[in-house]
Structure formats: structure tokens, C-alpha cells
């Protein structure tokens, strides 16, 4: 199954296309993972094309099983609908067997950070995930980020994810305290 989502251009930002990751995205994926700030927040760092291709295969498996719906975020060039290389990532991952609850995560590459791409992509994916799609009939999305990741907190708030609690660190996967933000189906 191939799901492609579109984000209209904004006054100062290009249109976006969100689509499943493809093997040819490996080079851009490794390049994005070279960013020290990105590596600070991620639990996995991809340093080779082989690791990136394996990760992309895992994302494809997630789509096939309907438990992890992972999108590459691409900027569309100019006024055309031609999308360039990936500049971000967003994923919806089921956290219970009924697939009614999922976590959402995202990142943007260093060269586009601060341009509103994360919030625009998260809003479109959140509406889609909590909407009429039938892959994963969700009632609730949870977004977790480190307490000191202020940019992710702003993105969550901008996309109407309410801060519900502060969670204790859970090393090694989550070595810092975290904010738990939630968006429920009626918020879509």
C-alpha cells in the first residue's frame, strides 16, 4: 500500500509531499543522521548506506503489517509538484494490539530546521491518522519528547497535542525525563 499525503505551500514555505521511504532515499537519510543535534534526540543513528537501507526495509515491513506507518517528508520544488530529496521523517507506530493507540515521532534535517516543516507535516499526518484511514483505526496519538527538547515541545503544542504528564527517564532507550503530549480523535 502506498499512501501519499500533501501539504499545501505556505506564504514562506514550499509544498510538502509525504510518502513511504524508498531505497533510493538511503543517501539522504545517512546525510541527515550526520547532524549532531538530530543524533542527540534519536535512539538510532544511521551511519552507512547499508544501515539506512536496512532501516528503510524495516519501515516497509511496518507498512506491510500495518503497525508502523513511516513517511519521508519531501519539499516540492517551485510551483511544480516535483518533490526533491527527503528533508524529514514522521512515523505513526501502534502501541497496542487493537491499533487504537499509537505514538508519533518526527525529525527534520539540519538545513530545513526552524522552517515549520515538522509542524506542517505532523498536522497533516495527525489528521490523516485520526481520520478515515483504515490501516490503523486510531482513537489517540501520543507524542513523547525529552523535556529539554524545546523545539519538539513547540511543534507538539502548535499541532494541538496537549501536554499530559512528565515521564521519568527510562534508560537506555529514553535517558532523560520526557513530556507526554496527547491528541485524541475528536481533535482531528
TrEMBL record:
PANTHER family: GNAT FAMILY, PUTATIVE (AFU_ORTHOLOGUE AFUA_3G00765)-RELATED-RELATED. Transmembrane segments: none annotated. Gene3D superfamilies: 3.40.630.30. Keywords: Acyltransferase, Transferase. It comes from the Bacteria. This is GNAT family N-acetyltransferase. Its EC number is 2.3.-.-. It comes from Microtetraspora fusca. Residues 16-188 form the N-acetyltransferase domain. It is an enzyme of class 2 (transferase). GO terms for molecular function: acyltransferase activity.
